[in-house]
Write a structure and sequence with these properties.
Helix content: 40-55%
Mean pLDDT: 96
Strand order of the largest sheet: 4-5-7-9-10-11
Distance between the termini: 22 Å
Number of helices: 16
Radius of gyration: 22 Å
Strand content: 5-15%
Shape: globular
Order of helices and strands: HHHEHEHEEHEEHEEHEHEHEHHHHHH
């Protein structure tokens, strides 16, 4: 569904005077601190967050799944939902497909549909963590790392097919998340499994076009609990370095043990030119995949601080591919994604107004209190007026979450698609 421009205009006009006052107050403060609000908004326009096709329906646990109705039943409707998110927020201009969940029946038609919603295709995602109905060999004991060459070949061929689909859609990258691992000591030769994985990734990499990138994701546990073949950023970095110049690490906020210093990982990878992708979510325990910024908003702010200053000093790092990777078990998925986009935008804006010159001076003088005060000042600045202004200037709504509720969008989707629908591919 598309929102009529008149509805957007009417909604934005209702609070126009108050928004203007709030923006004027913030603009004067930022200007007096040496910041140019217009330049900050220009940088924000480059922060387009990919929405994965699997995040548009209700998720669940191994104990149950509770659909809310109106969920997208096919790829066309998933594109429509991402288009809606982008129209409201002006921050979701990319969609990331998962194969074989979302194989396009006609790539030219799908590209044209995405263009109608001003969307482009971000990183493709392969799936060797599940057995498909028509699959010849099982991934129960691994895929790219499997001891059986026939299973490895099947997994490699699947990844090559994903690349081919992506080429036809205009994508320029692929993410490999490998679920391979073991549950019991002695079950697997750990070093041999890593060697087989590296060899498989090299085959996949060789199949990519020259202008493509390969993102290698990592995860310390789950679905296996004794070992995972790519358990941490160091292993991902090692594989990326050995695979090729266009292979990079991908950081997922949930793929770390509790209290890991993720911002330090981000800084290290950028300094080596190897941070290729980033998956946003939040967590209390591990890979909880809940709303971005709902648990650790300060961590999100610190991560963007490292990204902003790191990419400024390490221009050899590629443009980072950003995506939300969340599981919506109870909340309306579209509403949850809008909340996450809000949190990402606000964290980016707060990091953008850090006085990095003053911070560097305080760090060089080992002035801990001053360094902390500089960060706290930026973090506690209410930058919501700037985010609202950005959306209005781009043709979106200043408050997508309130617009979504007031216009009963979920109810409209239920009327169009039915109450008992289930999103495909989950």
């Amino acid at each position: 569904m598309k929102i009529h421009p008149d509805d957007i205009t009417t909604f934005n006009q209702a609070d126009e005077n108050q928004r203007a006052e709030d923006l004027d107050f913030l603009t004067r403060r930022l200007t007096s601190s040496g910041h140019d609000p217009d330049k900050i908004l220009d940088r924000l326009s480059d922060l387009q967050i990919a929405i994965p096709s699997w995040a548009l329906g209700s998720g669940g646990t191994r104990f149950g799944r509770f659909p809310i109705g109106g969920q997208p039943r096919n790829l066309d409707e998933k594109i429509e939902d991402v288009g809606l998110l982008h129209q409201l927020s002006q921050m979701a201009g990319n969609i990331s497909l998962h194969i074989p969940w979302d194989i396009p029946d006609d790539t030219e038609r799908i590209k044209a549909l995405a263009a109608e919603y001003h969307l482009t295709f971000d990183a493709m995602n392969s799936n060797t963590f599940q057995d498909q109905p028509d699959q010849k060999l099982s991934y129960k004991f691994g895929s790219l790392s499997h001891t059986d060459p026939s299973v490895r070949k099947q997994a490699v061929e699947h990844n090559k097919q994903v690349i081919d689909y992506g080429k036809s859609l205009g994508s320029k990258s692929m993410t490999v998340w490998l679920a391979d691992g073991s549950n019991h000591p002695g079950q697997t030769n750990l070093s041999a499994a890593l060697k087989r994985t590296g060899d498989s990734l090299a085959e996949i990499y060789a199949h990519m076009p020259a202008d493509w990138s390969l993102f290698i994701e990592y995860k310390p546990f789950e679905p296996y609990f004794y070992s995972t073949v790519i358990p941490d950023w160091g292993t991902s970095y090692l594989l990326a370095s050995e695979t090729g110049e266009r292979a990079y690490s991908l950081v997922d906020l949930g793929h770390h043990l509790p209290n890991t210093n993720i911002e330090q990982i981000v800084a290290t990878l950028i300094s080596r030119g190897k941070l290729g992708g980033f998956h946003f979510n939040d967590s209390k325990y591990a890979d909880d995949d809940i709303t971005v910024g709902s648990i650790k908003p300060y961590q999100l702010f610190l991560i963007f601080m490292e990204i902003i200053q790191g990419t400024a000093t390490s221009p050899h790092n590629p443009d980072i591919a950003y995506m939300i990777d969340a599981s919506h078990n109870l909340k309306d998925p579209l509403l949850d994604l809008l909340e996450s986009l809000d949190a990402i935008g606000l964290a980016f804006l707060k990091a953008s107004i850090i006085d990095f010159e003053a911070l560097s001076d305080a760090q060089n003088r080992n002035d801990i209190s001053r360094s902390s005060a500089i960060l706290q000042d930026a973090f506690h600045t209410d930058v919501r007026p700037l985010l609202r202004e950005y959306r209005v200037r781009k043709g979106g709504v200043h408050d997508p979450i309130r617009f979504y509720a007031e216009h009963n969008i979920r109810e409209q989707l239920i009327r169009n698609r039915g109450k008992n629908t289930l999103a495909t591919g989950l």
